[in-house]
Amino acid sequence: MARAVWRGVELAQSDDYEIVEGNIYFPADSIKSELFTPSETETYCPWKGVANYYNLEVNGEINEDAAWFYPQTKAAAKNIEGHIAFWNGVEVTA
Q1: Cβ(94)–Cβ(1) under 8 Å?
Q2: Is 79 helix (H, G, I), strand (E, B) or coil?
């Protein structure tokens, strides 16, 4: 079971996850979507593709760009397409 928690609030939980480059990627249906708002930030990875980001809001606090996902990956990263990973203070355990 993998879990993502920020400020004591669970953001995601799943038995079905992927680990890539030390990051745990959660399926989109395992997140508490009401805590996520789209960000305008995008980054690029040469082998995964373009990443989009989410801001998190928990109890009135905002954690900008704390979650990312690849809506359309390159062929080598199809296993994480649409999955969500975390950073920036989010505690992720498996």
Answers
A1: yes
A2: helix
Strand 61-69 to 84-86 pairing: antiparallel
Three-class SS state of 33: helix
Enter the tokens of residue 37. Answer: 């708002």
Residue 47's φ and ψ, nearest 5 degrees, are -110, -15
Asked if residues 46 and 75 have their Cβ atoms less than 8 Å apart, the reply is: no
The Cα angle at residue 27 between residues 70 and 23, in degrees rounded to 5: 65
Using DSSP's 3-state secondary structure scheme, residue 59 falls into coil
Cα(65)–Cα(14) distance, integer angstroms? 21
C-alpha atoms less than 13 angstroms from C-alpha of 66 in its C-beta half-sphere: 22
Place of tokens 């296993």: 79
Please write the tens of the pLDDT for every residue from 57-88.
Answer: 999 999 999 999 999 999 999 999 999 999 99
